[in-house]
Amino acid sequence: MAEIRVEVCYALPERQFLKALRLPEGSTLRQAVEQSNLLREVPQLNLESAHVGIYGKLKTLDTVVRDHDRIEIYRPLIADPKEARRRRAGKKMRVA
């Protein structure tokens, strides 16, 4: 059976997890994450509730991955990016 190459990545504030894998063609996103050992290295990560994607586009765990896909596991946002941008813009206007 043909093999594909993918990367699994997950970023924490203090470190980054990045693992290159070779998987059988037809593997799913879930299988890639499980094969990467990410769940052993970050035991507090709940894959069932985490948002996952490929190159910044949200996908489901049963998505079949393709050669050279970059699989990303996303952490929840602490602050709303739009609100943070408004606060920064407000500070700049007060300083000027």
Summary?
The protein is α+β, with helices and mostly antiparallel strands and 96 residues long. It has helices at 29-35, 38-41, 81-95, and strands at 3-11, 16-24, 51-54, 57-59, 70-74.
Descriptive report:
The structure is a single chain. The protein has helices spanning 29-35, 38-41, 81-95, and strands at 3-11, 16-24, 51-54, 57-59, 70-74. The model has no long low-confidence stretch (mean pLDDT 89). It is built from 3 helices and 5 strands, in the order ββααβββα.
Main β-sheet description: 5 strands, mixed
Read across the widest sheet, the strand sequence of neighbours is 2-1-5-3-4
State the low-pLDDT regions, or none: none
| Secondary-structure element series | EEHHEEEH
Overall body shape: elongated
Topology record:
Blueprint: E1 3-11, E2 16-24, H1 29-35, H2 38-41, E3 51-54, E4 57-59, E5 70-74, H3 81-95
Throw out a few tags for this protein.
alpha+beta, Ubiquitin-like (UB roll), 3 helices, 5 strands
